[in-house]
Design a protein that fits this description.
This protein is an all-alpha fold. Helices cover 53% and strands 0% of the residues.
Amino acid sequence: MPSDELESRLRDWLAHDLTEIAQSTMPFGKYGPDHFPPRGIPLYDLPLEYLQWFARKGFPKSRLGDLLRILHQLKADGCDEVFDEFRRRRGGRTDLRGH
């Protein structure tokens, strides 16, 4: 496969993953709907420490786990600003204090 085609495919996959992360919320746990009604917080607003806990204990074996793993890597690499546009559209970062 030519490198231009490979780069194009990788860009498409990454764009798809980022879009899915932007549209998904945490369905369970400390940042899920029970604590942050009605749907839980957006995945991209999960704290790095929470994602590191999953990295140590194991990510869910599902598409959610794949997205959390990608998100963990991005945040650990200092790329959290990738999600600033999504936050701006939602009115800002999710307030996690007091929960």
